[in-house]
Structures are given as C-alpha cells and as structure tokens.
Amino acid sequence: MKSLFLYKIFAVTVCVASSTGAQSLDYRHFITGNDFHEMCRNDFTSAYRYTVGVFDTLYAMNVVLNKQVSLPCMAPTTGARVTQIACRYVNSHPESRDQSAALLIFLGFAEASPC
C-alpha cells in the first residue's frame, strides 16, 4: 500500500516538473535502475550520493506535503545503510531496472520499512 502511495507521489512530482514549461526532458538522460545497479557494483560512493539525494528528496516531500509521505522507519539510520537497502532492492529486481533509479529506490525504502 505504501509502495503504491510513494509511486503516486513520485508520478505527480514528475508530471508537475514536466508541465512547468521548462525545456522538454528526455527520459534517456535520467539514471535508470541499470545505471544505479552498476554504481552499486563498481562505485559505491556514487551510489551513496545518489541514494542520499533521493532520501533527502523524500524527506523534503514529507515536509512540504505536511507529513503525507511516509519516511522509512529506519531511524536512526545512515547514508550507508539506506544505500545498502537501495542497492539490495535494485539487485533483487532485475526485471525493473529499465525504470527510473529514483523510483526503484523509493520502492526499496517502502519495502524495507513496512510500518
């Protein structure tokens, strides 16, 4: 249930961002699950930075939307821990790696914290 809610929030964010009249974005330039999987395997520092950015975005959405987005129940946690969770999720779902890495990380957080 929480995964579906997070997916909806992510989809709304993408729709709002793409309808702001800004220059059209080509999805192929975003980081896919395959790209992120390679980061996890070969460059943990880059995977860490990307994951922490996604986690910070989730936190910001939580603040902006008045706590309507559930943060993972992993507190206290570290950047390394959330990166391990994200990498494990992407590694475990090869069929979804053509999707946005940020979306897969959101889903990984939701799966790891079912509260």
Key terms:
115 residues; mainly alpha; 5 helices
Percent strand: under 5%
> Measured on Cα atoms, how large is the radius of gyration?
14 Å
Please, how many helices?
5
Distance between the termini: 11 Å
Largest sheet: none
Topology:
Elements: H1 2-18, H2 33-42, H3 44-64, H4 79-92, H5 101-112
What does this structure look like?
The chain is mainly alpha-helical. The chain has one domain (2-6, 31-112). The chain has 5 helices and no strands. It has helices at residues 2-18, 33-42, 44-64, 79-92, 101-112. The longest helix is centred in the middle third of the chain and has 21 residues, at 44-64. It is globular. The N and C termini lie close together (11 Å).
How do you describe this structure in short?
By secondary structure, this protein is mainly α. The protein contains 5 helices and no strands. The longest helix has 21 residues.
